[in-house]
Design a protein that fits this description.
Layout lengths: L9 E5 L3 H13 L3 E5 L2 H11 L3 E4 L8 H11 L4 E5 L4 H10 L3 E4 L4 H25 L2 E4 L2 E4 L4 E6 L1 E5 L3 H12 L5 E2 H8 L7 H17 L7 E3 L3 E3 L5
Parallel strand pairs: 1-2, 1-3, 3-4, 4-5
Antiparallel strand pairs: 6-7, 7-8, 8-9, 10-12, 11-12
Helix pairs in contact: 1-5, 2-3, 6-8, 7-8
Amino acid sequence: MEKQPGSASLVLVAEDDDEIATILTAYLSRGGFRTLRAQDGRQALDLHLSARPDLVLLDVQMPGVDGWMVLSELRRRGGTPVIVVTAMDQDVDKLTGLRIGADDYVVKPFNPAEVVARAQAVLRRTLAHAAGAAAAAAVIRVDELVIDLDKHEVTLEHGAATPLALTLTEFKLLAYLARAPRQVFSRADLLAHCLPEGDTLERTVDSHVSKLRRKLEEAGVPDVPRGIRGVGYKFGGRT
């Protein structure tokens, strides 16, 4: 069944003003959303990683890590939709938000019912886009590797097509890295998106990556995944 914006959707409200946060969460709850509150930018980033919200309502002027820095990091992590909710009403501010990657921009003071309507609209667009992208990206091809997401199969096309036997976790790691082969992913990111929920230690990522790399090397694919000292891993290979 297609997911609809509403009761199944979790909204992270990143807002340091208690009164505004209370109003937003109340209206969102009436609209059928689940909500989670972050009081500053650092907490917003931590909760985004742990709770994986469907949408973020993001204030700009927050203590510590400001909203622009949070938005930049969220865009580096992926495509979680973000609506900037701020008192900064100049055109240059709106352009900054949209340039960094905001999906919508709401200026305070606002009508909370309108914010809920915009959240629903952004989620509808996101779900429609995701459905189209999923259909188009059922197969990932990087160098000689062909990753079939529907069949959970990896094939090496080097002369004759050779299937590779990977565990589910190894498959998830390879597919996740291959979607953006030039991007470097942290261990925390790979842990959150690719490993079973019971795994909580980042060094577990190293173990799975090591086993995956060994299988690929034995198949004639060297340096995949490639470790980036002090940061994490990228796909590697010739990319």
